[in-house]
């Protein structure tokens, strides 16, 4: 039974602190997911087919990211947030609602992605400073993908 409680090299206080940070990111990702669903459903205009499909691709990716973040929190022996109330109470990104114009949606999406990047960079630095390779790798991969996505979205608006 003693093996079940081994630390595996990560301090308990750190686990709690990084999980709190990951839970805030999780809340933001859940709102990000719902924003993308709303934009997928409501987009109109000449770029409808392109954006409708792209927003679906993005919300599908967001569901995978939500799962990865929650599973990382569980790996750290902590509890992920899991209610809409928790997500809304902890989110820092903007809720996008009643937006049907594709360019407006893309601009708001870029703003939210930048907010996620700020949070992810803070988590990356903190996890790297504490030799938490699992969290650092997860977050590093998210950052790389989002930076590329922001570039592509900005290019769409030009």
TrEMBL record:
GO terms for molecular function: DNA binding. PROSITE patterns: DPS_1, DPS_2. This is Starvation-inducible DNA-binding protein. InterPro entries: DPS_DNA-bd, DPS_DNA-bd_CS, Ferritin-like, Ferritin-like_SF, Ferritin_DPS_dom. It comes from the Bacteria. Keywords: DNA-binding. Residues 20-158 form the Ferritin/DPS domain. The keyword DNA-binding applies. Transmembrane segments: none annotated. It comes from Maribacter dokdonensis. Belongs to the Dps family.
């Amino acid at each position: 039974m003693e093996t079940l409680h081994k630390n595996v090299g990560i301090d308990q206080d750190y686990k709690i602190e990084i999980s709190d940070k990951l839970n805030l990111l999780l809340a933001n990702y859940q709102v990000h997911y719902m924003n993308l669903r709303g934009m997928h459903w409501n987009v109109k205009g000449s770029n409808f087919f392109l954006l409708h499909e792209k927003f679906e691709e993005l919300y599908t990716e967001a569901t995978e990211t939500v799962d990865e973040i929650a599973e990382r929190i569980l790996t750290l022996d902590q509890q992920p947030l899991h209610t809409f109330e928790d997500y809304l109470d902890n989110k820092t990104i903007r809720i996008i609602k009643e937006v049907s114009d594709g360019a407006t949606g893309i601009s708001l999406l870029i703003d939210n992605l930048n907010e996620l990047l700020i949070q992810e960079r803070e988590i990356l630095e903190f996890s790297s400073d504490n030799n938490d390779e699992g969290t650092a790798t997860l977050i590093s991969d998210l950052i790389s993908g989002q930076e590329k996505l922001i570039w592509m979205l900005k290019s769409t608006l030009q």
